[in-house]
Amino acid sequence: xxxxxxxxxxxxxxxxxxxxxxxxxxxxxxxxxxxxxxxxxxxxxxxxxxxxxxxxxxxxxxxxxxxxxxxxxxx
Length: 75
Fold this sequence. Notes:
The chain has about 80 residues and is α+β, with helices and mostly antiparallel strands. Helix content is about 30%, strand content about 35%. The chain has a single domain, classed as TusA-like domain (Translation Initiation Factor IF3, 2-Layer Sandwich).
């Protein structure tokens, strides 16, 4: 999937992946896509809740090798 910016949140525990995601999205323009790579299993539920609360939809996600990748579109 195409993306405009990548955030490495590997090794970060809750709530740091969400905080870093929010900070990264703040520097982006509407319609751009942020790729987030996290290793915290809790990030799956956290990212879903973040997307719903902020209006920045997850347009793709995958899980492999204990890593979770999210593609979040800036609303």
